[in-house]
Task: structure prediction
Amino acid sequence: MSAVTIAEPRLSPEFRATIYYFIQYMSGAVVTVYGGIWFADQGLTPEQIGVLNAVPVLIMLALNVVVGRIADRASDWRQVIILGSILAGLLPLGLFFVSGFWSILIVWTLLSLPAAAVGPVVDAATIRMTRRRGTQFGPIRAWGTVGYMVMLILTGFVITWLGGAIFLPMFVGLSLLRTITAFGLPRFRGPETADSVAPHAGAARHLGEAMKPFFVLPLVGFSMVYGTHIVLNAFQGLLWKEQGFSADIIGPLLAVGALAEAGLMFVFGRVQSRFSARSLILASAVVAVFRWFCMALQPGIEFLIPLQALNAITFALGYMGCMHFIANWTSDEIAAEAQGFFQMLQQGMSVIALVGFGWLIGLMGAQAYFIAAAFAGVGGILIWLSIAMQGRKQPGGARLG
Result:
């Protein structure tokens, strides 16, 4: 009698994860293009818009590590991702029934929390799955940016064609589409007999073991750089509208950054093999200082296009560097928890950026980007300090730490 074999699914785990990533950020793209304008049309001030975006992030500061710990203890990370996606799809329906700052704040906070909680779990689960299977995380994550970019472009044209009233149905519809897609995700862990790849020598099995300055400083530093990008997402559409750009220009202009980001992620494997993770994170901070300084000068579109293309370095390079830095120094037992810790740092800096820059933009307009450049510069110093105190090696003696 022939041995019984278990057939591989028709769609590979990588492809199924890619589909989810492709849909995951589309609703956020709609908000990036028109969210600030829609909130302003509801009578909210720039300061209130900053608070609206900051409150969910502030709450997630206390929840990220907890959600990660729960996800790590589940039989598979997929369970937590599906539950969070269901909540993130249904709760946006409440926006149809609210008006005024306080009611919008409550609903926006409730719908933002599960979407934010799912993100680090998906990243942790996917990067561990690809390492176990010998594939690349970068191209899978890149398709998330492609989906975001496609929706940035479409949103501008759809709103120009149908008017601002279409914003809310688009946002809610894409949130529900993400929920449906979550049910197609694969099991991320391997069989119980071979659940994970053996961790590198020295990789932390408990989060407390990883809490050393050389590990924390680069994550704090890039989180500061990340916080300055949140300002772009929350306010840039409104700032460009005040400069005279229409929605059908704002969308494609934002998409330039997404296109450059995706391109870097597709080829990150080649970059990763040549430079240490922290060198890549440091490069993102240095270029961010230059980018935000130039943005403060309110350049014309001929300069905005290459500045937007720098998103490949200021965000994608640093983000991917952090993903691999965390995976290098932590084991699968704390994969989502460690990623949740990184998310907590990013969100903490985002709170500072959203509240502080919401006030600064109301006071200074685009010149608030001078402050963003300084903020990113401090982040770069922290990353450099980590390299100086511990070097570029990773566990096992490789040079990619």
Q: What stands out?
A: Residues 13-188+207-397 form a domain with the Growth Hormone; Chain: A; fold (CATH 1.20.1250.20). The radius of gyration is 21 Å. The chain is about 75% helix and 0% strand.
